[in-house]
Design goal:
The structure is a single chain. The protein is α/β, with parallel strands linked by helices and 386 residues long. It has three domains: 135 residues, Beta-Lactamase, CATH 3.30.450; 122 residues, 3-Layer(aba) Sandwich (Rossmann fold); 99 residues. Helices cover 46% and strands 16% of the residues. The protein has twelve helices and twelve strands. Strands 4-3-7-6-5 form a five-stranded antiparallel beta sheet, sandwiched between helices. The protein has a five-stranded parallel beta sheet with strand order 9-8-10-11-12, sandwiched between helices. α9 packs antiparallel against α10. The longest helix is centred in the last third of the chain and has 24 residues. The protein is globular and about 75 Å long. This is Response regulatory domain-containing protein. Keywords: Phosphoprotein. InterPro entries: CheY-like_superfamily (IPR011006), Sig_transdc_resp-reg_receiver (IPR001789). One of its GO terms (biological process) is phosphorelay signal transduction system.
Length: 386
């Protein structure tokens, strides 16, 4: 077996081959801790280092890094992933951790030595110790990440932009055609969509209109749409926002910040500044109860929104009235003021005399359901454990 290094995180010491590199990352792929030969990377970058930076230093190509990040994005706790990347290849072992709200630990090693396998359990124990001491799982949640869709027929560009966007904390998916983009927008809402100016098929103008129209109908709001081109001078007036290829981190941050600002203004202006999404001060000493009630309310709201989108006749039924009254009761219990106001608007003005609710009132309801989801996510109310 190769030479070994000894490290003592807290009270637990353990040995591992000195050629190994240990990386502990959070759910946004930001590096929490490095051990082994990788410690110099963190010493040079301080606390502003993420996983993509470390892997680039190891000589991995961006496409390979992108593939690994996709695998890590939703790795379940206690799930173990093994793969080989790079030339010469590096053996990588990844472990999803139950602490840290999506944290994971990576072991990078030049080769997989059978006799060193037993050391992996000690590595995972080290990772748990670090997370417990840092109380990663109890850190206050930041703003909800921007959801981004990148549309380009070149798969390498899609992977590259996904890698960049993760450094900005975005939740990103990719599509290589207009049809695939429309299918993804049907399955989930997006805050920002980047579309190649020369995308074949629909074309950027028609695809942008379709995405806005369908997102407004399905999710209650339209995404910010940005064109990608090699020369912005040749765009027509319909493509109001554009960035040039090759895309830089600085340009991408500008449009991500714009989409985030659009989202915040959309929800903050829906019912005016005087109406809160949720009266947090009413739950100062009852956070666990608030989390359970918020999750139940959101589940009810999302189910109701899905039925509205899938069945146009549902809003005409007596069951819809019953569901709205039930949803409103849940809103009052949680003090979800904006969603309560949206329910009142439908019950008071949309269903009087047996009539169906006005379309704009239903769209407002969908907007407020999504707004409550984003608020709850940003304040850590959707986490299943501390």
């Amino acid at each position: 077996m190769s030479d070994q290094a000894r490290y003592s995180p807290g009270d637990s010491s353990f040995d591992f081959p000195e050629q190994w590199g240990l990386i502990l990352v959070d759910a946004k792929m930001r590096v929490l801790c490095l051990l082994g030969e990788l410690r110099e990377c963190q010493a040079q970058a301080g606390n502003r280092l993420d996983l993509a930076d470390v892997l680039c230093e190891q000589g991995l190509e961006l496409a390979e890094i992108g593939e690994l990040l996709v695998c890590l994005e939703d790795i379940p706790p206690d799930c173990e992933l093994r793969l080989r990347l790079g030339r010469p290849s590096i053996s990588i072992v990844v472990k999803g951790l139950e602490l840290g709200d999506g944290a994971s630990c990576l072991v990078l090693r030049p080769n997989s030595e059978p006799e060193a396998e037993e050391m992996l359990d000690r590595v995972w124990a080290w990772a748990r110790t670090v997370l417990q001491k840092a109380e990663t799982a109890k850190r206050p949640a930041g703003p909800a990440p921007v959801s981004l869709l990148i549309v380009d027929e070149n798969l390498e560009i899609v992977k590259f932009v996904r890698t960049l966007s993760r450094k900005l904390g975005c939740r990103t998916l990719g599509a290589c055609s207009g049809g695939e983009a429309l299918a993804l927008s049907k399955s989930r809402p997006f805050d920002l969509v980047l579309i190649d100016h020369l995308l074949p098929g629909f074309g950027v103008k028609i695809l942008s209109e379709l995405l806005r129209e369908k997102s407004l109908r399905d999710w209650g709001h339209a995404p910010t749409v940005v064109s990608m081109t090699k020369d912005v001078r040749y765009l027509d007036d319909s493509e109001k926002i554009a960035i040039e290829k090759p895309i830089s981190m600085a340009d991408l941050k500008v449009v991500v910040d714009l989409a985030s600002s659009d989202r915040e203004s959309r929800f903050s202006s829906s019912e005016g500044e005087s109406v809160e999404v949720l009266r947090m001060e009413a739950w100062k000493d009852k956070r666990e109860l608030l989390k359970r009630l918020s999750q139940a309310l959101l589940a009810h709201g999302m189910e109701l929104a899905m039925r509205i989108r899938e069945d146009s006749d549902f809003v005409r039924s007596s069951e819809f009235v019953s569901e709205m009254e039930s949803l409103r009761s849940g809103c009052e219990m949680v003090y979800a003021e904006r969603l309560t106001a949206a329910c009142d608007q439908i019950l008071a003005n949309g269903l009087s005399g047996g009539s169906i609710p006005r379309l704009e009132h239903v769209e407002e309801l969908l907007v407020q359901i999504e707004g409550f989801r984003l608020f709850a996510q940003a304040h850590g109310l959707l986490q299943t454990g501390e």
